[in-house]
Amino acid sequence: MFSPTMINATSHINDLHAEAAANRLAKQAKGSGSRSSRIAGALSSVRSILTNPAEGPTALPKLSDYPYRS
Q: Is 34 contained in some domain?
């Protein structure tokens, strides 16, 4: 015998499986774009790398407040 909670949970799981399958199909369809659009995307990313100024590492601390400096 199935309780209403089990029926709702099973229905929700089935909906999630269907949504995942639809997302996979959409990703495959999107991935098979034209060659010119892929080349244009690569060129724009290279252009953005060359035009943006290079920044130094931001994770390293500054030693201006170091208490044991000489």
A: yes
User: In this structure, are residues 69 and 63 in contact, taking their beta carbons and an 8 Å threshold?
Assistant: yes
Task: Look up residue 25 and give its two tokens.
Answer: 């199909």
**How much is the pTM?**
0.43
Q: What are phi and psi of 34, to 5 degrees?
A: -70, 160
Domain-embedded: residue 25: yes
Q: What is the mean pLDDT of residues 1-23?
A: 91
CA–CA separation, 22 and 16 (whole Å) = 10
The tokens describing 17, both together, are 């499986």
Tell me the per-residue pLDDT of 28-46, one tens digit each, with 9 for 90 and over: 877 666 667 778 888 888 8
Residue 22 placed within a domain: yes
